Amino acid sequence: MTDFDGLFRTAGVTGFLHAVDLDTGAEIAHGADQAVVTASVFKVALLVEFFRQADRGALDPSERVRIVADGHTPGPTGVSAMADDVTISLRDLAYLMIAVSDNTAADTLIGRVGLTAVNTMLASFGLAGTWLEHDCAGLFASIVEDAGQEDMPTDPAVVARLRVLDPARTNRSTPRETTRLLGMIWRDEAASPESCAWMRRLLGLQVWPHRLASGFPYDDVAVSGKTGTLPTLRNEAGVVEYPDGSRYAVAVFTRSYGTAQNQPRADAVIGTAARVAVERLRS
Amino acid sequence: MDLVKHLRYFTVVAEELHFGNAAVRLGMAQPPLSQRIRRLEDELGVRLFDRSNRRVRLTAAGQALLPEAQEIVARVERLRALAGRGEGGEGAVLRVGVPPDLGSAVIAALIDGFREADRGVRLAPAEMWSTDQVAGLAAGTLDVGVVRHPVAAADLSFGPVLVQRPGVVLTESDPLAERPSVHLADLAGRRLVLFPGEPGLQEETLAECRRHGFVPEEVHEAQTLGLVIAGTAIAFGPRVELPGLRWRPLLGEPLAWRVSTAWRGEAGPAAEVFGAVAVRVLKENAGMTDDGAAPVRRVRTRPATGFLA
């Protein structure tokens, strides 16, 4: 057996992982049914419901919307970081939400799609452990209320009381349910084949290289994914595709003991653990 | 099997009707919780939960047994509370964790100080690194810890933060041992021994070393100073007097290790007494000072580590 505990421990984190071969169903599980805080990984579920509504004709993905600058949700990337009003199509917002985790893009889509609709979809897929409690603005407000400041806290006493780090009180899932949702996207089961292809393309445009992708430094291997970050939390879930056609959905959720924002080892262990799991599935 | 503990797991799962949520409340992982519920079901010879079709529900037998189980758990808790109130104090124990590198003299002073302050409760100290202490606090196997910052976990509270200024420990044959004090940059080219089980402290210490021009050739995780005595590495820590070793202060005191007591939820009276004793002993016997003395580090956020990245 692989010592995932040892691996995570060396990086100063506790970790939960699920990896599954999308074609054979073979799996590697390490705390795969643990309730975990998704952080931004929840944006994948939102992406799916967005494209399902597009499939039904309930929204037009190419419709342009105007986002005024003072209506932004806080965030370090994309529209959230921009100074001026933006006019942009809904599906390009979906791109920003996935590729750079843009919070304003996500909240604008939630405004169209509805959190309830996403939760209803998740329930209809049988993903009973996956639930969206709030949008990015709600999540931010909860942190500000608990921490008394707008910067992400590093003080251990403040971090310990953040409700958004408690899976029972925030957007949550399990590693196994996260890979199931990704598997549905990769097998054209989550929405129409065209929409699933679009979602795969967006997830393949993930810009952060330091987590899942860092574990697969091979030019002929494709890594698609969505990160998730909150104080002490580092997650990524995605799909790894090998040149022989085999594909693996992997979800890794970690929580660090230390509160420093920059912990390169904690980021890297997501890739290392994913590679260990995938290599075991391939051997 | 510890029947009372298993009954407590049963009551929590019955309240949550969700193994994941129950595991979070109990501060444990879900698989061992499921396993213990199954063991309890085997022990009692009945199924307590219906886990089919993705929803957890109490079976008829589970419903019948739940009030009894709650009663037993509540009575045992009352019993423990009465015992812990310390009339005569028989059996009342405060389980505390302390960092192994604190040294026997400091640990002895902690025990002595606590004995004087609270005669009703016996102190049971265990030497553990911070990650193990946090796991122990979460699992309820530890009442109070003395942890190194930054270390975080849900529902953890901290006492006043103290600062320890470590020096460097070298083999006596190291040329730097001749000097009265050592600058971090002087250590270039050497290997470094750091404590295992202190990931937050490790990150901070390595960042501070890099900032002052010391990039260790290699970092070893070790509990003892064996590698230092053998002359293959250096370590940071409080003053030590051991044959073959020299301790030297670091010029400018660049390292500030922060230490505090920690507990989960509400601190009991014995834990509060221990907290006060620990602060006094760590200041008087371990040379620690109030946190105000340490410079506050401003966090410069980067996109990849920012809110919901």
Automatic annotation (TrEMBL), chain A:
Coiled coil: none annotated. GO terms for molecular function: beta-lactamase activity. Keywords: Hydrolase. InterPro entries: Beta-lactam/transpept-like, Beta-lactam_cat, Beta-lactam_class-A. Pfam families: Beta-lactamase2 (PF13354). Residues 18-254 form the Beta-lactamase class A catalytic domain. It comes from Planomonospora parontospora. The keyword NADP does not apply. This is Serine hydrolase. One of its GO terms (biological process) is response to antibiotic. It comes from the Bacteria.
TrEMBL record, chain B:
This is LysR family transcriptional regulator. PROSITE patterns: HTH_LYSR. GO terms for cellular component: protein-DNA complex. The keyword Transcription regulation applies. Belongs to the LysR transcriptional regulatory family. Keywords: DNA-binding, Transcription, Transcription regulation. PANTHER family: HCA OPERON TRANSCRIPTIONAL ACTIVATOR HCAR (PTHR30346:SF0), TRANSCRIPTIONAL DUAL REGULATOR HCAR-RELATED (PTHR30346). GO terms for molecular function: DNA binding; DNA-binding transcription factor activity. Residues 1-59 form the HTH lysR-type domain. It comes from Planomonospora parontospora.
